[in-house]
Amino acid sequence: MKPLVIHGGHVIDPTQGIDETGDIIISEGKISPRDRESDLSPTNYRVINAAGLIVCPGFIDLHCHLRQPGDEDKETIATGSQSAAKGGYTTICCMPNTTPPLDNPDTIDYVKSIAAREAVIRVLPIGCISKGRQGKELVDMDKLAQSGVIGYSDDGSPVLNSRLMRQALDYSRRQGLPIIDHAEDITLTGDGVMNEGDLSARLGLPGIPTASEEVMIYRDLALAELTGGWLHIAHVATRGGVELIRQAKANGIRVTAEVTPHHLTLTEVRVTLSNPNAKVKPPLRTQRDIQALISGLKQGVIDIIATDHAPHSKADKKVDFAQAPFGISGFETALGSLMSLVHRGELPLTTLISKLTSEPSKIIGTRYGKLGSLNVGEPADITIFDPDMEWVVDASKFVSKGKNTPLDGDRLKGKVMVTISQGKIVYQDDSIKVKGI
Ligand SMILES: [Zn+2]
């Protein structure tokens, strides 16, 4: 096959400090050097005209739920990977709260083999912290590390037993892999379904106090300090959480953190009794929390943006707000949502791209090659997007099996046009034509 040229796009690569118009050449799955003399015509190359578009490293998602094995009616590794590709992602890390959970090398191997056969992008598994996600006994972390997990998490549930968390962080220090913390004190959450405050009182829905998150972040930062282990806080959603992480980093504690697109852009006012698609954990909070999350992201207190893509079937969400499961199907609206921050001048475009590419790559490390860079010789994982294209979210057209989004019918500005995974075009908007085929 002829090499591929992405011609005349606005290339942004935070790892090389590139932020200028240029061409990217892809040959045999890798980023290829530009031969100054060569004629980049459709006779010799396949050509994508990227004028007016942003060309950047493929997005990397450290936190998603692919539901396989066990809940293939909600999502599969195949459909989840296609949905991610449509959202501009070329590497996704899947959480282990499947049925059965990914708590031993056999289940990790199962996910890896399905991914190798059926996924259109790179899928990297996360292993459980505790056997069966029961919070009682540590998994065999040495065996899971050998089987290739990029970190450990009982996500969906916190690790309530502090001693077990200490043990996990001890291993983390020795292995250099992160413990990914679903920071929630479920005794404080109780039967809460949304942010605790005036609105929850008005709606008559039980609330979740911000302390539910803050208490657990505080405990786990103390344990990270005690052990020297690497704590990664998942889906930070509160102002108090951001401040705790800020102090911990200043004190030299090894902690990284992520925030989701929905927690950066939506508040509790999206919650209505008739729309369980705004029901998510942690819950959508307030404008004050959003401002703290954006500041934290800009200042490096929060390292990355991760989707927490959590697909559910229609039937699951077609119940009373109180009964509906928590979760938002997030891959396909992530960029459009996040670009609203750029368009409003709240987040520089280059910062946004680094939080989706080079920063998550640092957390994954180099065991799977150097990800998140357009350096010559690296795997050609590339996202091309139109920063200004407006479109209306139509959940029924999601590639994901999960149509559960509070954004259905919303107008977003910013759309993925082409996703290239290891040199292969895995998603292409209808309006994009590749010349020279
Ligand atoms: Zn979680």
In short:
The protein has 437 residues and is of the alpha/beta class. It is built from 14 helices and 18 strands. It starts with a strand and ends with a strand.
- Rg computed from alpha carbons, rounded to a whole number of angstroms: 21 Å
Category by helix and strand content: alpha/beta
**Count, helices:** 14
Helical fraction equals 25-40%
Output the CATH class name of the largest domain. Alpha Beta
Distance between the termini: 9 Å
Description:
The protein is built from 14 helices and 18 strands. With 437 residues, the protein is α/β, with parallel strands linked by helices. The protein has 2 domains: 4-55 and 379-435, Urease, subunit C, domain 1 (Roll); 58-364, Alpha-Beta Barrel (TIM Barrel), CATH 3.20.20. The strands form 4 sheets. Strands 1, 2, 3, 4, 5, 15, 16, 17 and 18 form a 9-stranded mixed sheet that branches. A 4-stranded parallel sheet has the order 9-12-13-14. Strands 6-7-8 form a 3-stranded parallel sheet, sandwiched between helices. It is globular, with a radius of gyration of 21 Å. The N and C termini lie close together (9 Å).
